[in-house]
Amino acid sequence: MGKGILYVAVLSLCLGTIPVASGFSGEVDYSIDDSIFEIEFTGYETYVNDEASEWACFIDEEYGNNDGIILENETENYEVTVGPKMIGTEGNHYLNGIVAIIDQYAFEMSFSHGNCSEVDLMNISIEGKFSFDVKSSNEYVLLFNTTEDPRVNNLQVHYCIFEDFEVQSVLGLTNESIDEECVSGFRAAGEDMEIEFQDPQSSTIPSISYMSTIFVILLSSVIFAQRAD
Predict the structure, then answer these.
(1) Which residues have C-beta within 8 Å of that of residue 174, sequence separation ≥ 6?
(2) 67: exposed, middle or buried (C-beta count within 10 Å: 0-12, 13-18, 19+)?
(3) How many CA atoms lie within 13 A of 170 on its CB side?
(4) What is the C-alpha separation between 33 and 74, in angstroms, rounded?
(5) Residue 14's closest CA among 70, 49, 58?
(6) Which residue of 87, 165, 166, 216 has the fewest CB atoms within a 10 Å radius of its CB?
(7) pLDDT tens track for 102-160
(8) pTM summary value
(9) Alpha helices in 64-178 (DSSP H)
């Protein structure tokens, strides 16, 4: 996607329509599918007060009959129209400079239907998967191109994808925490997230190579000395 948040498709498609406010919060969990090149995500978004009613009226206007009454079938029309459009598009994650491609995406909206201007709470559940066409490496940089929309400051993320890796550094998250396999924190509007991590085996390779070289040199010296005798 060219703008917005990768996993918040509905938010990114309507940044200019909904007023900037504190009526948004969300949380997303990322996990590895088969490898670091395939990442699954699940999460939720919550909109309240004006944010929720703006959403409902937008759906009624663009995907319903624009009569001010949001119906269940209008919401379903929005879900089945927008969700499939995400498949095959570029996301906002990058791995070693290669952009993610969204392979699976679905979301479901939950709120009280009726007068769209009276909707004051909306919950959205999301799930999907994205992948990278990246060559295997000993070191990786996972980057997320964060929108400048200040609502993302209320979006908490959990990257539990580092079970087989060592995290070296984390930038672009607030209130961050790091454990053995997870990096967590809140998005920072306008500040790209960057997580550097590596294969723990790679750090031992130079020393092994060095010792092998020393062994070869010593062995050659012994052979040369024996021939000299």
Answers:
(1) 153, 185, 186, 187, 188
(2) exposed
(3) 19
(4) 33
(5) 58
(6) 216
(7) 999 999 999 999 999 999 999 999 999 999 999 999 999 999 999 999 999 999 999 99
(8) 0.80
(9) 72-86
